From TrEMBL:
Residues 588-598 have a biased composition (Polar residues). It comes from Sphagnurus paluster. GO terms for molecular function: flavin adenine dinucleotide binding; oxidoreductase activity, acting on CH-OH group of donors. The keyword Cell wall biogenesis/degradation does not apply. Residues 575-598 are annotated as: Disordered. Residues 295-309 form the Glucose-methanol-choline oxidoreductase N-terminal domain. This is Glucose-methanol-choline oxidoreductase N-terminal domain-containing protein. Residues 575-587 have a biased composition (Basic and acidic residues). Keywords: FAD, Flavoprotein, Signal. Belongs to the GMC oxidoreductase family. The keyword Secreted does not apply. Its cofactor is FAD. FAD binds at residue 253.
Length: 598
């Protein structure tokens, strides 16, 4: 079997590779969220020999990642980050911004903010529809949510669970510990009281049951006081030492290579990588499959480096086009976010921790010694998923950008501190992150040059469409309404961090463009479509279209909701690009700022 595969390599390639090629059944590129799960599941079968190539270091070299609350300090521009920066963003006043991606075993699950959201039923049912594969539907996915989740007691005790989640819909038999915040925060009661008082932000006990809407307790991937990443779970000690799994750290893959032709399709069963910066090139072959799990940036970069992409663009770059798949790297969709701050009276916020090394040292030793304190939490304990009202002029004019009625347009992350870096030198804050979660803007990942190791050109197109920008403005107005509840009256002093200068819609436009950033959820650069369909990059089984031996399994296959704007009730079949300029958009109402929040 192995011998015949080697024979099928082109003669030139087999000469080059003769001394350096190791052979496996599966070669997985990237040990992140997807790659680590695959490495675990495939090596359950003792007959499969699996190689996992991870560009970054071992998670075990960074025990600090265990502390949930410090996640915002793990990126950008650290030893665990790919250190990407975007191209200038027209929707962000022309700024180029950091674009963090986890670099190490565990991938972005090693550095992320731990917030556990399954997503909405509408979105999974939409995946099933666009891929013509019922296996992607919400109902079909339940089996996998159950296999993944081990819902565990939080540090503060199991008795709170019933109040905070619907235990019925959770699994206690999966691999990944998930819980609620383990330490009460000083604003928990105020948040719930404000929600009860206003009505607009309805409390929901459970956001992971298909209907995401409402305000409730965050669920997070923690195991007691510690982060659960895919490295600590799916590749925990028990699995990492399986004899049929080899993990190579510091192995950055440049491309996949054609090894032959099968049923008239080119087969790509060889991987080229370099061992650490400046190292010589190495090769690994897979008798069954190469699986790219390099993520929404890494996967399209590797495909394009390999000659799989738009033939014309590749030729222009000096890369030999081998498979014409024009959608590789297209349709990048990401969630923009703004961190909004309000100055508050109490000094019991976490801002002192964020700015003061002495407080940090104290809390970290408390966490290490007792497993207690607010470091067991993530940045927020409450989250809200909200829709614009059906009669909002944005919706009536342009249609609904969400996947369905139980899916959100925007999200809040409510924090007992201002989650910006660097932290303001003084003051105590209430922070509300506002995120646009059904964005219509689409960007791309492109190659900078024919150098396979050069940083790619990343354009997440944040707030590019006036629609997305307007939804962000609506979300911030909603946050202002939330803070205006009497539950906050003896707590909040007033808007801060730039928000205090916003007195008109024009001010708000400027504030949004100057403060929005990525909230780290890029998808769609190798999106799935129906078998046989020309658009998209992979079939519903995640095999690359028109190619043998190569699959993509990571967030790049997730295809964001397509949104077609209505103009006078007519589907223009163009995305947000056709909407009026910001100043003319519907839904503007200057008087709102003059009168202040009700
Ligand atoms: C700062 C931050 C905060 C986030 N917060 C949350 C949150 O709170 N909740 C949530 O649900 N999601 C969050 N996310 C998003 C979430 O982590 C990602 O959606 C998810 O990890 C994507 O999984 P993936 O397998 O596609 O990619 P990743 O987990 O990013 O894994 C890709 C892996 O491939 C490796 N790789 C890439 N290129 C190569 C190459 N050429 N050769 C070898 N290896 C390579 C990378 O080093 C990495 O290990 C956050 C992300 C970030 C960065
Ligand atoms: C990112 O930058 C940090 C800080 O300069 C550095 O330590 C790290 O090695 C860089 N990451 C990569 C992948 O080069
Ligand atoms: C789930 O977590 C509990 C601890 O809360 C642990 O005892 C149990 O073994 C875990 N289950 C699995 C399947 O890992
Ligand atoms: C916080 O405020 C309380 C009074 O509300 C005061 O006693 C305490 O010293 C303050 N702590 C700090 C660190 O400023
Ligand atoms: C992605 O975007 C391109 C245009 O940029 C479009 O032609 C294509 O059909 C889109 N859809 C998918 C699923 O990739
Ligand atoms: C603008 O908003 C204010 C306050 O919410 C409201 O009273 C007023 O009717 C609105 N005006 C228009 C034109 O929608």
């Amino acid at each position: 079997m192995r011998f015949s595969l080697l024979l099928s390599l082109t003669s030139l390639l087999s000469q080059t590779l003769a001394s350096t090629t190791d052979e496996f059944d599966f070669v997985i590129i990237g040990g992140g969220n997807a790659g680590a799960v695959l490495a675990n599941r495939l090596t359950e079968n003792p007959d499969y020999k699996v190689l996992l190539l991870e560009a970054g270091p071992s998670d075990l070299d960074f025990p600090v990642t265990d502390i949930p609350f410090i996640s915002p300090s793990l990126t950008p521009f650290t030893a665990l980050d790919w250190n990407y920066t975007t191209v200038p963003q027209p929707g962000l006043a022309g700024r180029s911004i950091p674009f963090p991606r986890g670099h190490g075993l565990g991938g972005s699950s090693l550095v992320n903010y731990l917030i556990y959201t399954r997503g909405s039923k509408d979105d999974f049912d939409r995946y099933a529809e666009v891929s013509d594969d019922p296996g992607w539907s919400w109902d079909s996915m339940q089996h996998y949510f159950y296999k993944n989740e081990n819902f565990t007691s939080p540090v503060e005790g199991a008795d709170v669970l019933d109040r905070k989640v619907d235990v019925e819909i959770h699994s206690m038999t999966g691999m990944m510990p998930v819980s609620v915040s383990g330490s009460a925060t000083p604003i928990d009661k105020r948040i719930l009281n404000a929600a009860a008082e206003l009505g607009e932000f309805k409390f929901t006990r459970e956001m992971n049951g298909g209907d995401v809407l409402g305000l409730g307790w965050i669920q997070l991937t923690t195991d007691g006081p510690k982060r659960s990443s895919v490295a600590s779970t799916y590749l925990g000690p028990k699995y990492r030492q399986r004899p049929n799994l080899q993990i190579i750290f510091g192995a950055q893959v440049s491309r996949v290579m054609q090894t032959g032709t099968e049923n008239e399709e080119p087969a790509f069963r060889c991987v080229e990588y370099r061992l650490r910066l400046g190292g010589s090139l190495r090769y690994a072959a897979a008798s069954k499959e190469v699986i790219s799990s390099a993520g929404t940036i890494g996967t399209p970069q590797i495909l394009l480096n390999s000659g799989i992409g738009d033939s014309k663009t590749l030729t222009e770059l000096g890369i030999e086009p081998l498979v014409h798949l024009p959608d590789v790297g297209e349709n990048l969709s990401d969630h923009p976010g703004v961190v909004n701050g309000w100055l508050v009276h109490p000094n019991t916020t976490y801002d002192d921790f964020a700015r003061d090394p002495v407080t940090q040292a104290e809390e970290i030793s408390k966490w290490a010694e007792t497993g207690k304190g607010f470091l067991v939490n993530t940045i927020s304990s409450h989250i809200a998923f909200m829709r614009l009202p059906d009669d909002n002029p944005l919706i009536t004019t342009y249609g609904d950008s969400a996947a369905g009625p139980k899916s959100a347009h925007y999200e809040f992350l409510i924090s007992n501190w201002l989650t910006v870096a660097p932290s303001p030198e003084t003051g105590h804050y209430l922070g509300i992150g506002t995120l646009v979660v059904s964005p219509t803007s689409r960007g791309s990942v492109k190659l900078r040059s024919a150098d396979p190791f050069a940083m790619p050109l990343i354009d997440p197109a944040l707030l590019k469409t006036p629609y997305d920008h307007a939804v962000m403005c609506e979300a911030i107005k909603a946050a202002q309404r939330f803070v205006s509840a009497s539950a906050w009256s003896d707590h909040v002093i007033g808007p801060a961090n730039g928000l205090e200068h916003v007195h008109s819609d024009e001010d708000l436009d400027k504030y949004v463009a100057e403060n929005a950033k990525t909230i780290f959820h890029p998808v769609g650069t190798a999106s799935m479509s129906k078998r046989g369909e020309k658009t998209g990059v992979v079939d519903p089984d995640l095999k690359v279209k028109g190619v043998a031996g190569l699959r993509v399994v990571d967030a790049s296959v997730l295809r964001a909701q397509e949104h077609f704007f209505l103009e006078n009730g007519v589907d223009t079949s163009k995305r947000g690009d056709v909407t009026p300029r910001w100043s003319e958009r519907p839904g503007k109402n200057n008087s709102w700022w003059r009168s202040g929040p009700e």
